[in-house]
Specification:
globular, Glutaredoxin, single chain, 205 residues
């Protein structure tokens, strides 16, 4: 009887644990915080608040100024030798893959620096040049104040940690904002073809 009671108790614990896991992972569809966030964004668009930016040309603008366009957004710092190099190369590729909607003024690519103290307009312009900016459709910019930087990284789910050597450890992704200013998709970096195909499908709807 003791053995049977132990087995039944163990079974109940497993069932309860499974139910808790299912609830916490949205029916087992998301096993990490990041994947859960991406799933939530895809199912429920997130309004992106307005904040001021300064571009590589030195001009000032806000996200509100870009309403009416689809936006592909990434976060970088120009001294980065790892993920930011991947993202810079991808945005140059996306300029080619999405040349038509860029030329039609339906799409903009936006790189936002999370190191605005070091990433002045000259550094932002050099970053774009280094990765082969085609000269149209891609904006590199920095937030104008700490509050704007915190707001931007929070809304887009960017986590940045100083590495102790002057650089940063950070996650890398490409976010899609619709013309209404809502975050609607988050893509992994490293697959510009997937990003381009998904956006082309949305533009065709």
């Amino acid at each position: 009887m003791d053995t049977l009671r132990t087995l039944l108790l163990s079974l109940l614990i497993v069932i309860a644990g499974g139910a808790t896991l299912a609830a916490a992972t949205d029916g087992f569809r998301a096993f990490t915080t990041e994947s859960a966030r991406r799933l939530a964004v895809r199912e429920h668009a997130v309004p992106v608040p307005d904040f001021p930016l300064q571009s590589a040309s030195g001009g000032h603008f806000t996200l509100q100024d870009l309403r009416g366009h689809w936006l592909l957004v990434d976060f970088v710092y120009t001294r980065c030798q790892a993920w930011c190099s991947v993202l810079g190369g991808e945005f140059a590729q996306l300029q080619d893959l999405l040349a038509a909607p860029i030329a039609q003024d339906r799409l903009r690519l936006l790189s936002i620096s999370f190191d605005p103290v070091n990433d002045d307009p000259a550094q932002l312009a050099a970053y774009q040049h280094r990765f082969g900016d085609r000269g149209h459709g891609w904006i590199a910019a920095r937030p104008l104040d700490g509050a704007s930087l915190n707001l931007a990284t929070r809304v887009f789910g960017i986590r940045v940690i100083a590495d102790g050597t002057g650089g940063y450890i950070h996650n890398a992704s490409i976010a899609l904002v619709d013309p209404q200013g809502r975050l609607v998709r988050i893509f992994d970096s490293g697959r510009p073809d997937v990003v381009a195909a998904a956006l082309q499908e949305m533009l065709a709807q």
